[in-house]
């Protein structure tokens, strides 16, 4: 007998028929004697519908009140799933975030979980209930409803698994696991049986979009066993996220090829190469709430250097304006140039720690295809390059093949 | 400066545009220096939408889970109205029933309010907030969400007014007050400036449907000043429900003509006239959850009597079946007959306490029009008759005229 937290996303509970399917899946686990807590998101489309309603009233909806509204989406889902479980003769009980005492800070629309009161939950589990808990939401110490931000239901699942020491937190999605790359680009892409926590972090932040980054970090911090599975297939073990490199077996060098075409690059050229210049450039950008991804500054010469970074494509024009109007005159830069027709392609794998030559192999493979590399950034377990957007898919395909991902044998 | 509870129903908050209108009305009162708590229902249609969703999953939805679902309707309304008030630069804050500590019993879908914790509310009012509270809902002592039944938002408004000793509980609806009768039947019907609590009870139970009966009873018990107003008109004082007869002025004899065409009559004839017979007949009917309205038993003769009562029209055939199959053979009645093409017409007024002859005048007026009276029931402040359905409108019109309701001068 095991104790599972199972999280089902908006697509998995997108209709009452799908909710009944989720109930049947939960019932199967329950009949095997497992204890189950189910975490659900709002029915797909519901959160956006509620946000649109709010926008009809306030252009920038008050965050506290927006949370009161959008938290109703999950509240409907938990009731429907509990009913569906009862229809299968399973004792079920729903809890909103506030009811199950998911205590958060007061940062409305992006709150962080501080504590979960486990007494009520333990009691219900002992009484044989399947608990259905609203994802994405909690309450602050004044009792105001809070939400955790998009994808926050994953975080709720992981937080419950951590607080209650569940055996596994299973994230059911519309994909059946983590792949070496996007199968829509490389049909030979393979599902990974396991992926390390660090690789997953790089995959998530690079745009794999299957798991919310914060949930993965949270799981890593509390060593929660996290598994990604399909809610539409009955078989399949999905992908398990592990927290230790497997010492017994040869680790594959590279786990996957990630990519992201939502980026734009900006270069501030000919800036004085003195301490504080990076802050002078990026401070005003951060103040405008623009997230910066890659940052590159090469060795300068003649007292001048070039400073480059990437931002989300939607922030491109706004950031260019800030740089041209405020920063260029202020720091005395020669020029500000940029482009939003770029893509980032990354090779990810914990194996590269102990294998030299990954970066050079990557560069050689791209050169052989005539793909020019515009920017390079590296970490311990990934190498990212920025290339012209039109080469992105080609780059992903040739790298996937060059690193033998089609034939990867997993531990 | 006064302290008002204002309740807006589902039609009044049926769209974001209407919610903005409600906000402007609340703002007007607020700008005059009044303290305001607003109680809102779900946007019209929303509760039914949620119930339909639940029915797709469970034919008889679990009451606890149904309450979790349908309570989201008001939760959306309170957030939207709070946002709309903030757009008008008014400090506003929303509370669900559970958050504002409306403690109820655990009778899901028809819970009763036990207590309201006023500390939080007082503090917010002192801080200058307009509070927007979800109608229709509360929480039981375990923290489970409860709802108060259809029309429960009125009850929430009255309960808040009673607990906080508000100066007035204003019920905004799609009509501008209580009329002497339905203006669709009698165009000359007049709005009453005041109506007594007892008259209102009779009007509500007779089908006037403007205020929920339970809310009126609640208001009577705590002597809450209750006013019915239109949420679509800017002027107008609506109708005030009073708890004492005005001794200073001549009370009009009759306040209004109520009617109800949703009834059916049933007669069990030739039953032995002995103690307990009423219970033997009505016990099984009550066990089948059929509500009985008028009950009439006349003096018997030859040891036999006839027993008649009315039920809601939708319960007619089921009740006839119970009577024919179970009760008639059991009590040895001669026959069970009934009809569902009837209507009830009532003359209501506290003035009839001190004025004789109301009933006889009513019977004379109906006789002059050739309307046969099938059943009669009287209370201290009303006389009700059952007539053929086809005469209902005629009966209402001639009685309205005969009792001078077109020219009524109100105190």
The gist of it:
2 copies of one chain form a homodimer. Chain A is an alpha/beta fold and 411 residues long.
Describe the structure.
- The structure is a homodimer of 411-residue chains.
- With 411 residues, the first copy, chain A, is of the alpha/beta class.
- The first copy, chain A, has two domains: 3-174, Carbamate kinase, CATH 3.40.1160; 246-411, VC0802-like.
- The first copy, chain A, has eleven helices and 20 strands.
- Chain A has helices at residues 16-31, 46-57, 63-87, 119-126, 152-164, 197-208, 213-222, 277-287, 316-331, 358-368, 392-402, and strands at residues 3-8, 35-40, 92-95, 102-104, 113-116, 130-134, 137-139, 145-147, 168-173, 194-196, 226-230, 239-242, 256-260, 263-272, 292-297, 304-312, 335-339, 342-348, 373-379, 382-388.
- Chain A has an eight-stranded mixed beta sheet with strand order 3-6-2-1-9-11-12-10, sandwiched between helices.
- In chain A, β19 and β20 (382-388) form a beta hairpin.
- In chain A, α2 (46-57) packs antiparallel against α3 and α5 packs parallel to α7 (213-222).
- The longest helix of chain A is centred in the N-terminal third of the chain and has 25 residues, at 63-87.
- The mean pLDDT of chain A is 89.
- The interface between A and B is large, with 36 and 36 residues.
């Amino acid at each position: 007998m095991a104790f599972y937290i199972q999280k089902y996303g908006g697509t998995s509970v997108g209709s009452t028929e799908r909710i009944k399917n989720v109930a049947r899946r939960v019932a199967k686990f329950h009949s095997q004697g497992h204890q189950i807590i189910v975490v659900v998101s709002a029915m797909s489309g519901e959160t956006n519908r509620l946000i649109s309603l709010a926008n009809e009233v306030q252009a920038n909806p008050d965050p506290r009140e927006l949370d009161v509204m959008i938290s109703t989406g999950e509240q409907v889902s938990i009731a429907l799933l509990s009913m569906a479980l009862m229809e299968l003769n399973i004792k079920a009980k729903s809890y909103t975030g506030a009811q199950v005492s998911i205590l958060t800070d007061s940062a409305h629309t992006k709150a962080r979980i501080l504590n979960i009161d486990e007494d009520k939950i333990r009691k219900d589990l002992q009484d044989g209930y399947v608990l259905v808990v609203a994802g994405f939401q909690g309450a602050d110490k004044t009792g105001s409803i809070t939400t955790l931000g998009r994808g926050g239901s994953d975080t709720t699942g992981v937080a419950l698994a951590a607080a209650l020491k569940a055996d596994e937190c299973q994230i059911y999605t519309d994909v059946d696991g983590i792949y070496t790359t996007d199968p829509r680009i490389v049909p030979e892409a393979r599902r990974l049986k396991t992926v390390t926590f660090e690789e997953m972090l790089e995959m998530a932040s690079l745009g794999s979009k299957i798991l919310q980054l914060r949930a993965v970090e949270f799981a890593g911090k509390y060593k929660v066993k996290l598994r990604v599975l399909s809610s539409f297939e009955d078989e399949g073990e999905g992908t398990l996220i592990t927290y230790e490199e497997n010492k017994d077996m040869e680790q594959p060098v590279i786990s996957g090829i990630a990519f992201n075409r939502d980026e734009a690059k900006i270069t501030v050229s000919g800036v004085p190469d003195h301490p504080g210049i990076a802050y002078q450039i990026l401070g005003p950008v951060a103040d405008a709430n623009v997230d910066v991804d890659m940052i590159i500054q090469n060795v300068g010469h003649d007292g001048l250097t070039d400073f480059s970074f990437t931002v989300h494509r939607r922030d491109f024009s706004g950031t260019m304006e800030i740089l041209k109007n405020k920063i260029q005159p202020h720091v005395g830069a020669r020029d500000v140039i940029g482009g939003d027709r770029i893509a980032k392609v990354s090779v990810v794998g914990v194996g590269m720690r102990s294998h030299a030559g990954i970066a050079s192999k990557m560069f050689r493979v791209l050169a052989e295809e005539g793909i020019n590399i515009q920017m390079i950034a590296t970490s311990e377990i990934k190498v990212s390059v920025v290339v012209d957007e039109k080469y992105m898919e080609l780059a992903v395909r040739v790298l996937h093949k060059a690193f033998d991902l089609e034939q990867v044998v997993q531990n």
